[in-house]
């Protein structure tokens, strides 16, 4: 602005005074007042290039980037790209019009240092890290001013981004980590390489440097320091989460959120990480955290992969909270943005499975596999899993065998053989072995996996009665390594089941027992922790003890038998009931329950009257049964039968009657008039 004021010094007196005011306000940083003076100058001369430049600068300093860009676009004839390229590109950059900013910089006829600095920032935002790294290297090499430390910090940030998002092994730039920003960026690069413990140490060092740097300023409060440390603590919590220390990570994440940092990008990342910890639990908390990821301006603060991860987690949360339509909408949007990405289609398939639409889910995955052959393997593995869940094991095997790049893998062979064995399809299982062995024979004949597969195939065939085929495999294995005694032993064992004479001939190739030197310490083996029997160490025996030891071998101790308990009222003179061990219902003298019998005997007429046929039912009239109860009005009968127990209570002679049954008898006698 000082140069602009000097250029206009030759104008009229009023204009000169205004330019002086603009110059003074610019030096004092009062750009709002300077803007007023510039507007007055433009009223005098509306096409004054210097005044227009000053106006744009004042608007930028006041944060009015839209208005500044509008002034530039309105006066394109006066403010050409050569004159105001940096200001225009900077406004576009701050308005997040990154592609436009790049075009403006590239169209400038002269690449000044300011444009190069801005060019590096633009490339970083566009995630063109290789070009960005070259731009900053050129700047550091060709610049010598007070901003060198900032350029090195930006350079280290580019290296950290490459390591994190592109998995590029970072080169040693030889930067001295004297500031907490450089330490922090170095820690991020280490996280990208998976060196979590080293990264944690770097972050702790960055925290120390940050506290030291900020504590030197007396105006900085503890709250300000904690706010500045929030991003470092957030990265520490992320390392804890990767290490499986989820409780510690969650606690640190929540502490950062309580500080209410102004960085919406940091809050969004922390909220997303908390949601990943919660998974399908604590859904209410996850719903609250999602709001932090929707804050204004988040999309301009995070990388594409970070934003993509947040959107994936939103779709999964919608699925866990049974918001099927929202889940489908989010996953469809993600698929349109990244058609080749696996996660959106997997989320859609998972949602369909939750709705019990397994066939539709398999069809969706099949369509994706056909359209994107590069990702077909992972999709087909998911399809096979769904088929197994439905019980269609054979169809799952067909899907797995269609993955050509995995057919020969030991894990795939093992899975297919197990599944075919479960379905009792031995021929298909052997075919899987054969195809895998042929692949290794063609491409990796000396691979140990090849020999291992032949051996496993032979064992499988022997187990399922395919002896001749197993012998063929074992012979092939023995030819490749004639000194393998284990294979020879297996071959002899197999021949013994088919051709014993051949087994005898082959057994001559076995080494003799004399050549086998088995250096086994039997005592150490018996006393080892894994031994099922541990021999007790023999101690010195005295004379008496020795005699006892010898005596124990000849005479066995007789165990004393405990005497059985007898009932309290047991009478040895009376013979016990031989049926006492049987349940009451199974005893020969059991006559059924007496409940309700009395009611059946009561007549339905007037009191004291008898019903027809009562004499037939009277057991006392029969010769075989004793009198049961006294008849009404017969006193002699009472005296004659007073000592006789009714048959329903009668027990065999000598059988003790319990106290409880005696009490029941008394009660029934009182009620029934016995």
Automatic annotation (TrEMBL):
Coiled coil segments of this chain: 98-153
Compositional bias of kind Basic residues: 556-566, 658-674
SUPFAM superfamilies documented for this protein: TPR-like
GO CC terms in record: cytosol; endoplasmic reticulum; signal recognition particle, endoplasmic reticulum targeting
A biological-process GO annotation: SRP-dependent cotranslational protein targeting to membrane
Boundaries of every Signal recognition particle SRP72 subunit RNA-binding domain copy: 536-592
Keyword Cell cycle in annotation: no
Chief localisation class: cytoplasm
Extent of Basic and acidic residues compositional bias: 568-589
One example GO MF annotation: ribosome binding
Record keywords, A-Z: Acetylation, Coiled coil, Cytoplasm, Endoplasmic reticulum, Isopeptide bond, Phosphoprotein, Repeat, Ribonucleoprotein, Signal recognition particle, TPR repeat, Ubl conjugation
TPR repeats: 230-263
Family: Belongs to the SRP72 family.
Protein name in the entry: Signal recognition particle subunit SRP72
Species in which this protein is naturally found: Strigops habroptila
Gene transcribed to yield this protein: SRP72
